[in-house]
């Protein structure tokens, strides 16, 4: 299933970037778990299909997360935030996981703090602090910012705050890109409702491009990243320099990985029910158990979000040589720097 959905990883040609909200990983504070041992293996397998993954909803206790790191192996690294205090922060961290043989951390990382003039409603920081880290893979140097936007509702004050938060963060990064001339990617659980909605327009008005723009494929269902297949909460957006953004050559160079086609499939409720006797939320009837299993239980084993990914080209050799031949020496030669730790 992975091979049919996600492009093959390469050594030097392409970079596979994904964003994944792994639901409440892994406090079991809502009593639907705990996660089974096999779930940790599945999560590690999903992560290992990519080169770099932005993960949201990692809890304050990092011991479950470290189990995944052990399964991934010694080449994998991570950079994590502290938790954002307060009820909106929900005790969550945001984490970047990356294969250090392919991706280099460029020694800059921090949680984004908006300036006074850019505060949401003139007084608020985002509900969960966005996390910005500088990376390089091949010739491609980029600043990667992950977010978990305030959820709210589809109308009213909560919705307005959601829109304002996307607008504030995207606007901040647009100004930063204009000032330093560097590449920026914004990704994560943005709680975007869909094309044409104010949540999407708040992102695109700051000149961020999305994979659907690049592929001219605006089919909403293709980009749905929730378990129900009808929401576009998760997004990957780009604000980059000229000629430094090109999707990879694979036919499926951007999309969503629906792991439920292979693990915790819809017909397995009675298989897992005996393993979860300590979970008192399981209904008494087979029909009730099947509904609970599909809508709730398995989302606390994996997630109610599916990974959204994109394949990017990272070898600019041909373009660089073409500029040389044309007599236009690039000002900032985007050469590989594999010697950095």
Automatic annotation (TrEMBL):
Record key words, sorted: Endonuclease, Hydrolase, Nuclease
Leader peptide range in chain numbering: none
Superkingdom classification of source: Bacteria
Pfam family, one: Exo_endo_phos
Domain Endonuclease/exonuclease/phosphatase: 18-193
Keyword ATP-binding attached: no
Family matches, as InterPro entries: Endo/exonu/phosph_ase_sf, Endo/exonuclease/phosphatase
CDD domains: MnuA_DNase1-like
Molecular function, one GO term: endonuclease activity
Keyword Nuclease attributed: yes
Protein name: Endonuclease
Record organism: Pseudoduganella flava
